[in-house]
């Protein structure tokens, strides 16, 4: 019989890009209110995941000041700045849990948290088979990280109430993930 704990151990909650720049009113590329509103939900999910023996991944854009990415987007998440720090209650949650062995911070150079990072290896070592995705933006970094997980044979679940975006594509992105990556939309 598989217990709830065994299931949780093979799961990771991935929190994508919940930085000041993407969430705070004064952020460089902010999704604003919709992103701020999902913070309590994500904190609850992170607490649950740890309590049940699962893993929490903080995937975070990490750019150099002269990153070529800034030819396409306003500057954001420059390494070591206020803008790159986790927003509000999520920042507090991370400060409390950053030394937990099942809380792992993964800086990422691109939209997809698997691209040029060691996330795949980390999840493999933890025995993770299924990832639950939250964060911003639904149709950009969450979408492409879900794609990255799918390509690596992981089951994907996206928590719709834990995602937000600054575009109008939230709903269509969820539908597209369901269609292309067999993502469970929860
Ligand atoms: Zn970026």
Question: What are its keywords?
Answer:
6-stranded parallel sheet, globular, binds zinc ion, 186 residues, 39% helix, Rossmann fold, alpha/beta
Can you walk through the features of this model?
The protein is an alpha/beta fold and 186 residues long. It has one domain: 3-Layer(aba) Sandwich (Rossmann fold). The chain contains eight helices and six strands; from the N terminus they run αβαααβαβαβαβαβ. The chain has helices at 4-9, 20-23, 33-37, 39-51, 88-97, 119-126, 138-151, 170-181, and strands spanning 11-16, 55-61, 103-108, 130-136, 155-164, 184-185. Strands 3-2-1-4-5-6 form a six-stranded parallel beta sheet, with helices on both faces. α4 (39-51) runs parallel beside α5 (88-97) and α7 runs parallel beside α8. It is globular. Zinc ion (ZN) binds at residues 61, 63, 69, 76-77.
Briefly, what is this?
39% of the residues lie in helices and 20% in strands.
What's the rounded overall pLDDT mean? 97
Number of strands: 6
CATH structural architecture: 3-Layer(aba) Sandwich
| Major β-sheet profile | 6 strands, parallel
CATH class: Alpha Beta
Q: In DSSP terms, counting alpha (H) and pi (I) runs of 4 or more, how many helices?
A: 8
Low-confidence stretches: none
Strand content: 15-25%
Classify the helix fraction into a percent range. Answer: 25-40%
Query: How would you sum up the global shape?
Result: globular
Tally the structural domains: 1
Radius of gyration: 15 Å
Class by alpha and beta content: alpha/beta
């Amino acid at each position: 019989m598989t217990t709830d704990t065994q299931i949780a151990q093979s799961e990771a909650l991935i929190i994508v890009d919940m930085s000041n720049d993407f969430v705070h009113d004064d952020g460089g590329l902010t999704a604003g209110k919709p992103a701020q509103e999902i913070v309590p939900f994500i904190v609850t999910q992170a607490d649950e995941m740890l309590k049940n023996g699962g893993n929490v991944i903080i995937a975070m854009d990490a750019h150099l000041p002269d990153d070529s990415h800034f030819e396409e987007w306003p500057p954001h998440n420059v390494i070591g700045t206020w803008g790159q720090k986790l927003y509000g209650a999520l920042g507090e949650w991370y400060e409390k849990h950053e030394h937990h062995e099942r809380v792992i911070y993964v800086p990422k150079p691109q939209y997809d948290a698997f691209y040029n990072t060691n996330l795949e290896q980390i999840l493999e070592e933890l025995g993770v088979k299924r990832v639950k995705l939250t964060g911003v933006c639904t149709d950009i970094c969450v979408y492409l990280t879900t794609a990255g997980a799918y390509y690596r044979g992981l089951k994907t679940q996206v928590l719709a109430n834990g995602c937000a975006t600054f575009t109008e594509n939230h709903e269509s992105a969820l539908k597209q993930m369901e269609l292309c990556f067999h993502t469970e939309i929860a």
